[in-house]
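Researcher: Please generate the 3D structure of the following complex. Treat every line as part of one assembly.
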Amino acid sequence: MVVALNGCAVNPVTGERQLSLIPESQELTLGAEQYTPTQQTQGGQFYLDPELTVYVREVGMKMANVSDRPDLPYEFVVLNSSVPNAWALPGGKIAINRGLLVKLDDEAQLASVLGHEIVHAAARHSVQRMQQGMLISAGMAGIGMAMSDNEWAGLIMGGAAVGAQLALAQYSQGDELESDAYGIKYMKAAGYDPQAAVELQELFLSLSEGNESNWLNGLFASHPPSATRVQANQELVQKIGGGGYRGIEIYERRIAKIKALQPAYDAHDKAIELASEGDFSGALASINTAIKAEPREAMFYALRGRIYQNQNEPGKAQIDFDKAVSLYPEMFQYQLYNGLNELALNNLNKAKDHLERANEVVPTSISYLRLGDIAKEQGRRDDAISYYSAVAEAGGDIGEEAKRKLAAMTN
Ligand SMILES: [Zn+2]
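Model: Done. Output below.
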């Protein structure tokens, strides 16, 4: 147990001694490297209302500044997903979904959610879980599958898959209680009414007893609510005293835009549901409603492109994928859809460009495989072999296809 002895450190939040095999420098690097890819596998940034992100960052920083690790390189983003969720990567890289923001009533509740995530990052909970090997055994099951539109989830390769696991794996009850307790203390220190944290937990507990799949796939999957948590929070708030800033009006003002956009996102989510049931004309009608309501949302065009693909209309799909890419060029999924569609149209160079752009942000086995096909088709034998080799060990149908093609080329 030499490693354990050398690796002992003090929990930066609680002051307790704990096993620490991953040094702080590595913790910060991990969070910084995985932040963008992890955002992208969870819907990407919500870019239609940059003011909202500024606001979330302000509230987050108020909480971070009174935390036990105020010097972490904190960042806060709003993600474009209807799933009610929030997560933290090591080093203070935090995200909250549009789908959770619309469910909160005031700024104190937002501070509660962000404070809880700050503790997960500051107390190194996810780093601890990684050390314990829990994340590896958790595998990719359920990761990123919160919305059925994320079919790439099982295809993500390398470090980006680690980020998704760190963000979405389930925390232990002990970690949850610790995050609640310190989050409540930070609320008090920042001037927020800590009672908001209790209310939120009560709401989450009652919702989790229902059967709202959106919630069960989101916040509850990684941060399981419990009666124990509600009671512990209640006792703590009684001890330190409730009362403080709620910020109802400012919160309502700041989320007015996402509230107004909600019918468009509902129509988008409905279109996904219809498409997954095989009703592509119904899906098309629903996504057209969404596009009409908000013509600047890349996600809507990307979905309509995929519906056209399913209807064997790659020409129409191409127009929509180009639009999605022009609105949000950094988003790997839109580049990937576009690349695969260009390949179907036999536009090899365009396909190559889009797939390479996608791989720069989030490498996937499907894009490696198709880049291999393109290289082979264009007579770049060494490139083809290196793409196929990279994906041959990925397993599943894609890994098998790569193995077959590799064997055919090297025999
Ligand atoms: Zn939690």
